């Protein structure tokens, strides 16, 4: 166990060293969600409505926190496919180290980057006038749900990255992922969508997390009478756990198959 922890930390330090060598890439990754938030809050937000009334920015910003956690999937895929194509993972697997440390190091580094990205987004939201109205414990619970979603997306990204294998295939996978990301209650309330689309949006894992954190922050939330809308807190936990339960063993099996 001690050697496994040491190997995992070595892989994590490798990713941290990459940040230091390529700070522009890190800065762009942190700035993109903020720019997206500004576009919707100031340019498009004037024409948006919130079910049950309320300020659109109060509705939007917690949803953007959830969207930022989901977007991390693409960064994980890109980094993993680059290592695969450069032969880095093959070299690591040939060394006297725990093979699983490669994925664990990737996981820890991406979670650290997600914590930093979420902190930047919260700071941007506060600068735009957003405020939470819940207790300190509720705020911590909201942050925990957001990071839980990111953890689930991370393992989905690892699995998809191992399947893609090449950076040029990531765009094809993104084309399939983005409709799932935007078919949610992050930017608009499902109540204003066509009935069939609103039902899909209410059951979206990202919608569940966004609705739960809005409630914990005390911001305007998604109004609905469906089971999914009324049990967003439960779904915000069940969905990520289910995704990890599916993606983790499939990613591990795919990683083991690389040597065959």
Automatic annotation (TrEMBL):
* Domain of life of the source: Bacteria
Cellular component, GO annotation: ATP-binding cassette (ABC) transporter complex
Is Cell membrane among the key words of this record? yes
* Membrane-spanning residues: 23-44, 59-80, 101-127, 139-163, 175-197, 232-253
How this chain sits in the membrane, per its record, is:
Multi-pass membrane protein
GO biological process terms on file:
response to antibiotic
Pfam families registered for this protein in UniProt? ABC2_membrane (PF01061)
**Compartments where located:** Cell membrane; Membrane
List the coiled-coil residues: none
Does Amino-acid biosynthesis count among this protein's keywords? no
Q: GO molecular function, one example?
A: ABC-type transporter activity
| Signal sequence annotation | none
- Domain ABC transmembrane type-2, which positions? 24-258
Q: Its family? A: Belongs to the ABC-2 integral membrane protein family.
Return the protein name: Transport permease protein
**Which organism is this entry from?**
Nonomuraea diastatica
């Amino acid at each position: 166990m001690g050697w496994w922890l040491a190997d995992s930390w070595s892989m994590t330090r490798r990713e941290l060293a990459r940040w230091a060598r390529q700070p522009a890439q890190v800065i762009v990754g942190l700035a993109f969600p903020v720019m997206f938030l500004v576009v919707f809050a100031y340019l498009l937000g004037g024409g948006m409505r919130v079910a049950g009334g309320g300020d659109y920015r109060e509705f939007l910003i917690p949803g953007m926190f959830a969207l930022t956690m989901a977007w991390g999937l693409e960064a994980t895929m890109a980094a993993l496919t680059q290592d695969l194509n450069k032969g880095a993972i093959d070299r690591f697997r040939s060394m006297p180290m725990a093979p699983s440390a490669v994925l664990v190091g990737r996981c820890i580094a991406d979670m650290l980057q997600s914590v930093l990205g979420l902190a930047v987004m919260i700071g941007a939201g506060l600068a735009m006038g957003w405020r939470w109205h819940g207790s300190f414990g509720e705020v911590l619970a909201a942050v925990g749900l957001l990071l839980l979603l990111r953890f689930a997306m991370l393992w989905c990204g690892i699995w998809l990255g191992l399947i893609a294998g090449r950076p040029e295939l990531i765009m094809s996978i993104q084309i399939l992922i983005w409709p799932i990301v935007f078919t949610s209650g992050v930017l608009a309330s499902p109540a204003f969508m066509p009935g069939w689309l609103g039902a899909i949006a209410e059951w979206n894992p990202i919608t569940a997390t966004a609705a739960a954190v809005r409630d914990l922050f005390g911001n305007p939330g998604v109004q609905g009478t469906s089971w999914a809308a009324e049990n967003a807190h439960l779904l915000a936990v069940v969905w990520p756990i289910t995704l990890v339960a599916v993606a983790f063993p499939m990613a591990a099996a795919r990683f083991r198959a690389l040597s065959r």
